[in-house]
TrEMBL record:
<dbReference type="InterPro" id="IPR011701">
    <property type="entry name" value="MFS"/>
</dbReference>
<feature type="transmembrane region" description="Helical">
    <location>
        <begin position="12"/>
        <end position="31"/>
    </location>
</feature>
<keyword id="KW-1133">Transmembrane helix</keyword>
<dbReference type="GO" id="GO:0022857">
    <property type="term" value="F:transmembrane transporter activity"/>
</dbReference>
<dbReference type="Pfam" id="PF07690">
    <property type="entry name" value="MFS_1"/>
</dbReference>
<keyword id="KW-0472">Membrane</keyword>
<feature type="transmembrane region" description="Helical">
    <location>
        <begin position="37"/>
        <end position="57"/>
    </location>
</feature>
<keyword id="KW-0812">Transmembrane</keyword>
<dbReference type="InterPro" id="IPR036259">
    <property type="entry name" value="MFS_trans_sf"/>
</dbReference>
<keyword id="KW-0813">Transport</keyword>
<dbReference type="GO" id="GO:0016020">
    <property type="term" value="C:membrane"/>
</dbReference>
<protein>
    <submittedName>
        <fullName>MFS transporter</fullName>
    </submittedName>
</protein>
Length: 120
């Protein structure tokens, strides 16, 4: 049975803010880790954390509190922050020096293309 929580747009937006806040909090640590550990390890660990967070979101009780939702979203955001920086760094390091700016542009184009395709 589906639950309708009747949260308004402002309340929903505030709950979703947990994702970028978690990224801001974890970014300095992940940046240092990306310099020390292989991208495959950090990306895999990050995807594991995101997967666990989404599973926890799926297993929410019928009438969750805002905090119940927000901490799970924050966990997913923190996990995601372990995926993107090491992945982008690995892609840029794989590009020849004279093509790094083009590779950076392609990362942006592919990200925005994916977002655009999901909107339709």
């Amino acid at each position: 049975m589906a639950c309708r929580s009747h949260r308004g747009p402002v309340e929903t937006g505030l709950i979703m803010t947990a994702w970028p806040i978690a990224i801001v909090v974890t970014a300095p640590l992940v940046g240092r880790m990306a310099d020390r550990y292989p991208a495959a390890l950090l990306t895999s660990l990050g995807m594991l954390v995101v997967s666990i967070a989404f599973l926890l979101l799926r297993l929410l009780p019928l009438h969750p509190s805002d905090f119940d939702i927000a901490w799970r979203i924050a966990l997913a955001g923190g996990g995601f922050s372990m995926v993107q920086p090491p992945n982008n760094k690995a892609m840029l390091n794989a590009a020849p020096k004279h093509r790094i700016s083009g590779a950076s542009g392609m990362i942006s184009v592919s990200r925005l293309s994916g977002q655009t395709m999901l909107d339709k």
